[in-house]
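Summary for the steering committee. One of the milestones for this cycle was to obtain a three-dimensional model of the protein with zinc ion bound, which we needed before selecting residues for the alanine scan. The sequence and ligand used are listed below.
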Amino acid sequence: MREKYAVPAFNVYNIETINAVTQAAEELESPLILALSPATVRHIGMRLIATLVRDISWRSTVPVALHLDHGHDPEFIRQCIQAGFDSVMIDESTEDIATNIRNTREIVNQARGRGNVAVEAELGCVGGFNVATNTLISDDWLTDPDAVAGFVSKTGIDCLAVAIGTQHGPYRTTPKLDIERLRKIRQQVRIPLVLHGASGLLDRQIKEVIEAGISKINIATELKIAFTDAVRKYLMVHTSESDMRWYLQAGQKAVNEVAKQKIKLFGSAGKSRSV
Ligand SMILES: [Zn+2]
């Protein structure tokens, strides 16, 4: 927050994407957040991912945190906290604010019981669409700056995801971001603000949101596309290839490149030295 850069939270799906973003962070000396949705945690296995990332963070030359992205089921989030996640998101963005506060507060209490586990919550609803519940919000879904201070103090959260015009998944046209709203939110609270739905924004927009107070940026879609495009291309050229290490390696390399571009853009390169 003080140095006006954003820590990258890269969504990872398998060992290749984990290695790709970890190597990118190490090459550029950036702190790193490995983010997994509940579906991906189930895909890999909760204990396995917690053990794997603990081992990576011990060996790594940069700080690596394990984060649950868009948690919704309180029992599942509790299990992640118990399993050793460094950070969890509780996404109650489709609920009314009183319910959001109550449910988020409960997770914060559990996280405090485990020491240093951080909690991220969302006020407003990114894109008007709740990823955790697959629900569309029809009314005004942007974060209300006047509600932010109360929400943060009543819940006790560590990071706040804001809705300022981004949405999850690929964009058809470049979205217009409400930077004025972001500035107002920034003035209300002292905790880091998080941007979801950052894949596909212009570099200029990323710089603008960081300057206006975003300290963590989530990237998922761009990594998925880079990985899959590279694997597809490799297999179209090497039509008889059957060793999965080779074509997955092509995906890993592509994700590594995108991750390095983002780290440079977010201004987090070199920042692991001062952590
Ligand atoms: Zn998100």
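Key point for the committee: The pocket of zinc ion is lined by residues 70, 126, 131, 168, 196, 218 (CB under 6 Å).
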